Structures are given as C-alpha cells and as structure tokens.
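User: My collaborator sent over this chain with a note saying "see what the structure looks like." That's all I know about it. Can you take a look?
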Amino acid sequence: MTAGSVMAAELAEQPEVLDRLVRRHVADRDQVAAALPGRPGSGALAGTVLLARGSSDNVAVYGRYLIELAARRPAGLAAPSIHTRYKADVDYSGYLAVALSQSGATPEIVETAARMRRSGAVVVGITNEAGSPLTQVSNLTLLTDAGPELAVPATKTVTAQMLAVAAIAAACDPSLVTVADLEALPGAVASLVADPAPAEEVAARWLQARRLVVTGRGLAYAAALETALKIKETARVHAEGLSSADLLHGPIAALDSHLPVLIVSGGDRFATDEAALAARLTAETVPYAVCGSAPGADLPLPAGASEVTAPILATVRGQQLALAASLLRGLDPDAPTGLSKVTATH
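Assistant: Without extra context I'll predict from the sequence alone. Here is the result:
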C-alpha cells in the first residue's frame, strides 16, 4: 500500500457519504426540532453549547456560527476542563448541548456530555460510531454514517459532521439551510475530488515553507482552522489557523516573504476585507493564495455554492492541500508519527 492511499481513498468517498446525509437531512432536522429544549417559563431555547476536540472542534466552530445565526440565541464552545478538572456545577437548563466525537469514545467529551445532561441540557451527539459511549449519554444521536475511517487524519467524518451540524441549525430555522442548497453539495464535492491539481500546484509552490498561516472569517473560519490542522498533522508544517480579523490585531506583523498565507474566502459578505488583506500582503511581499469561488482563485470552489456549503467545499480543498504537501515531503499522511485515531484526553 502506497503512502497516502488510505487518506486519498477516504477523501474520495465524501460525495457518497454526503449524499446519504443530504437524503437524510429532513428526517434529522425534524427529530432535532422535536427535541429542542426551552427555558423554564419562556419556552425559548436558552442557547447552544458545542463540545469537541481536534477536527471535531473545528466543526464546532462552524456550528457556533451557523446555529447562532439560525436560532438567534447565543451559541458558544464548551471548555471540557470546566467539568472534568474543575468539576464545576453549571446549570444547563434550557440549553442544547451538541457533543461531537468521530469515535464517540473520547473520555472527556463523553464525561462532559453526561454532566451537561445531568445539569439540564438536551444533548445531541454527533458521531460515526453507533453504540459508542457518546450515544449512551446523549438524548439524541445523529450518526454520520461515513463508514470506517482508517487514516489518522479525518476527512469524510469531518465534512459529514458539518452536514449533521447543518441539520441542527435547520431545526432552528429551515430557511437558513435549504434542501436545495444541500442537494447540490455532493456533486460539487465530486467535482473537487476529480480535480486535485490546484492543491498540488499550491503545495509545490510552498514546498520549502516550514510555516503557514491559514485565515478566514465567519463560517469560513472553521475551514481555515481545519485546513491548518490537517497540514500540521500530515505535512509537519506549523500551520496556524486565524480569523482574518485577529490576524490584523497583531500577528500580521510576523508575516514575511518566507511565511505564506492561505486566505479561505467567506464570500461576498467579506470580499472587501479579503481584497484589502490581499493588497496588504502584496505590498509587503508576503506570498499568498486564495481558496474560493471568485475567478482566479488558486484553490477554486464551484461557483454558486451557498454560504452554508462553501465552508464544506473549502474543507475538502484543505484536505487535498494537506495530502499533496505531505506526499511532496516524502511523508505518509495515513499514519503521522505520534498520532492515533482516538486521542484519549480526559
């Protein structure tokens, strides 16, 4: 078996996996809607907290934006140590807790989800493993149904989790996540899978780079974080994922001609900001590339993708870039040194 063949095969399975979830979307949305909690006395959802680590945590960032936009109630990321180390007694009455774990077996995610449920939250678990510990502590489980994932870097389970999160957002506001937008997604991903050349070209261009910044804003921020993580895992390049707003608040001073920047486009809403950033990088001779649907993008995305699905497409491009960068460096992305499929944090 050649280096990277498992990761490449699982990356290529994503259109089929996503198609299954798209066809299941309405059923998933409706069962989440039936389970949504309300605040005592008001009947309204108090808020949402998302619980995850690793790649799932990057999906949780996507969910933080999407669910808050849909529910119009606060959404945020949980700090598992509050529960597993500080043993804090937190009241989650009226809250939705979304716990994400590909294996469903990460101890701190399972323990924290169980504590949240005992404290009043309705827990929706998102996992790839039926019968896993996470399913046993959740009120409701959305299975990603991606099939076994053997490569250590997660690919198909990540984008599947993103679609599961979209179903939760749709339970709060079906108009934000439309079936029509989702139905176009598997075909759009298939077009990317069939066209790895742009990612290979960018990887070759930046072959000598030992550092990289990946930046995006809004829903695209999640794709930037996940791309940075994949590159760190597979290519041993210190890639840092940053909000483009945070980049301007100090870190941009560290950029130079040896530190490339990948801009993950957030679409029309952020186009002016992205153009200003690109102009500044050019003026300061900082090499950069763009992942987006605008003409001339280095990592092009299909035109017409919705704001909800574009980050999923960008995540796939990021996976391709990580795979290509790893192979060009003579590494095996299927089994990065020192990593395992399940990280047993507590």
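A starting point for your reply to your collaborator: The chain has a mean pLDDT of 94.
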